[in-house]
Amino acid sequence: MTEIPKEGAGRPLYESAPKISPAVPAAPYLWAAVASYPLAWLYVKKLLLVNLFEGFWLLVFAIAFVAGVEGMARALHRTAARETPLWAGCWLVLSAVMPLWGYQNTLSDWQMLVWHLFAVWFVLARCGMLAQGYTGSLCFLDALAGLLILPFGNFFRRIGTIGAGIYTMGRHRVRLRQVGLAVATALITLLLCSTAWGLLSAADPNFAAVGRQARQWLSSLLNGPSVVENFIVFLLSLPVGAWLYGLVAGSLRRQEAPWTGERFFKALEPLRVLPSVTANIAMGALCVVYGLFFALQALEWLAAAPLGLTAPQASSFAVDGFWELLRILLLNFCILAAVRFLGRRPLPRALALLFCLFGVAFAGLAGAKLTVYIRLYAFTPRRVVAGWFLCVLAVWAVLLLVRVFRAIPAARIGLAVLVVSFVLLSCVDLESRVIQANIGRYQAGVDEELDLDVLRDCGLNPWYTYDAPSWNRNGRVVRYTGWLVDSGWFRGRTASEIQELYDIPGETFGYEQQADLGQSILRLTFDEEYRCQAVSLTAKENGV
Do 342 and 273 touch, CB atoms closer than 8 A? Predict the structure, then answer.
């Protein structure tokens, strides 16, 4: 018979006391919500609308954003990923060099995209929201989380945070005496400062001028179209600030990424339906096709080697197939990724080795074609960028080859190479280097004529306003023109040829014409045959 416990007797402890998690401090979230308003206003006003992602405001925004995220993460004791300094450093360097060289046709659009991606990846790394704890083969999950899930999933969190802060402040009773003291202090301070300002203005006219300028600025701010403009900018900045705060606050409120690597690979298990036989046969067939291609290439080279390549043959070799080889490399990477994620078993080592060797061979052949192409037809910004991308693909191919023999984080290293090399490429004044190299070839007699399309793409256009900062960064157009003058390109040119690069009047007979380059004046003298016989480049005096 079970004995009934007496009243007041001790009872067994069936479960431990509930674990109470420490309260999350609300102050960092509140301060970050408030700070997101001016930061978003700065983004819309100074970066998006006025400068179109040029000027020193890029660096100002990046520094303020990095400092804000770092301060908020430290206040919440969030551990950063090891690669956080890489993303912060690359973002700050890119923010500094983008305004330095101004807008460049080939790179600037990519730079604006990468600039935003660097900001997102810095937040993910600093807040511990990377799917694998680092940027690797699951970077597409990181992009999905950083661009969509986290910011839009917490899009209205800023409103709730500020509302909760106001409610909390309202619950605390504020004494009437304290309010009166604050109002009295403000009035006395304002009265004393106004009296002192009036006396000092009478004593010093320069100090009085400062006061007048301050009043004019205040009146222009409160009256006129600037109020409407700022109000429109404020409205446009609201979704930007909500997105930024949603990204940061949404990351810090979570303990793990929306999709971790473990969860992803576990969910991927049912999709691993690619039989190893199918993968081996398909990749083996590709290796046969690749082997036949390189065998034919070798036979063509052996047949032409005793006689040497003629100029048309070299041109045909350089032009034909370069972009196709890049596409073949990308196709190989996609195939390896499909086998990695969807295959039931990994590839045999011998087959993987052969496939990766073909990838390295394709990269080498594409590099040889690009080298011959540049030797024949000189540099262009697009060819330089293609060479950079080919180098990145070649590094990836070598990393995959090494991974066949040794387990290395190939994806992690390859993405780091891509990121760092892009920042280093952005640190170069690409368009100036290309023009300097092409003019050097023309001056040395390697090229009979300059490619005017390249010069126009790099900023020498008659319809550009050269005194605008974005098109004449550090006297870029004047520097180009000085190189052309030193090379002797102008002499003997007709007016129509020069007008392809500069804005000069059509009437040239017997007259000296000039082109306004913003900082300098290009003066041209034409003879009776309508050809340029003298040229000079002189700087403006006092900007006139």
Answer: yes
391 alpha-carbon distance from chain centroid: 19
| CB 513, CB 503: distance < 8 Å | no
Q: How far is CA 176 from the centre of its chain?
A: 53
Q: How confident is the model at residue 154 (pLDDT cuts 50, 70, 90)?
A: very high
Please say whether the beta carbons of 454 and 434 come within 8 A. Answer: yes
Residue pair 492/531 in contact (Cβ under 8 Å)? The answer is yes
Query: Which residues, at least 6 apart from 367, have a Cβ–Cβ distance to it below 8 Å?
Result: 387, 390, 394
- CA count, 13 A, side-chain hemisphere, 284: 10
Residues 6+ apart with CB under 8 A from 168: 26
| Residue 513 phi, psi dihedral angles, 5° rounding | -110, 165
Encoded tokens for 44: 């819309």
Q: Edge-to-edge, what's the strand order for the sheet holding 520-526?
A: 512-516, 520-526, 532-539
Please give the backbone phi and psi of residue 337, each rounded to the nearest 5 degrees, phi first: -65, -40
pLDDT in tens, 215-247: 766 665 555 556 678 888 889 999 999 999 999
